[in-house]
């Protein structure tokens, strides 16, 4: 099967999608970046070290990341988490590091371009999902706002 990265700028948006996967037959996925209590209770078992993914060594963690076809993480985790950066995607005759066949970006209308780039750069194909009536990105820096970020 194809490897899929599910991402958004909020933990809640990522978890909303991941929570629905078992109901459509996806029983195994990995939630990266929610280990410190940021993942929803329904998704927390799918974090490294959770009840669905026992890993005792860094080698176990990397194997878990490499073998998971579906990975969920915020855009920040995609940019900064070594499990994603070092993830090896092996297919017949090829290997790529840190890449996914498909990257799904939810709430894309609420993201700034800099926060969207890390997941998009990991994609062979990407899908941007958003609502045209969604709130725009929240920018807290007057200078960044002036420069269009």
UniProtKB/TrEMBL annotation:
EC number(s) for this protein?
3.1.-.-, 3.6.4.12
GO MF annotation list: 4 iron, 4 sulfur cluster binding; 5'-flap endonuclease activity; ATP binding; DNA binding; metal ion binding; single-stranded DNA helicase activity
Q: What subcellular compartments does it reside in?
A: Nucleus; Chromosome
GO terms of biological process kind = DNA repair; DNA replication, Okazaki fragment processing; replication fork reversal
> Which keywords has UniProt assigned to this entry?
4Fe-4S, ATP-binding, Chromosome, DNA damage, DNA repair, DNA replication, DNA-binding, Helicase, Hydrolase, Iron, Iron-sulfur, Metal-binding, Multifunctional enzyme, Nuclease, Nucleotide-binding, Nucleus
Q: DNA2/NAM7 helicase helicase domain spans which residues?
A: 58-141
UniProt GO cellular component terms: chromosome; cytoplasm; nucleus
Q: Output the superkingdom of the source species.
A: Eukaryota
Asked whether the keyword Metal-binding is assigned, the reply is yes
Catalytic activity annotation:
ATP + H2O = ADP + phosphate + H(+)
InterPro entries according to UniProt: DNA2/NAM7-like, DNA2/NAM7_AAA_11, P-loop_NTPase
Q: Does the keyword Endoplasmic reticulum apply?
A: no
Q: What is its main location?
A: nucleus
Q: In UniProt terms, what function does this protein have?
A: Key enzyme involved in DNA replication and DNA repair. Involved in Okazaki fragments processing by cleaving long flaps that escape FEN1: flaps that are longer than 27 nucleotides are coated by replication protein A complex (RPA), leading to recruit DNA2 which cleaves the flap until it is too short to bind RPA and becomes a substrate for FEN1. Also involved in 5'-end resection of DNA during double-strand break (DSB) repair by mediating the cleavage of 5'-ssDNA.
Q: Which PANTHER family match?
A: DNA REPLICATION ATP-DEPENDENT HELICASE_NUCLEASE DNA2, DNA2/NAM7 HELICASE FAMILY
Similarity comment text for this entry: Belongs to the DNA2/NAM7 helicase family.
| UniProt name for this protein | DNA replication ATP-dependent helicase/nuclease
Q: What is the organism of origin for this protein?
A: Micromonas pusilla
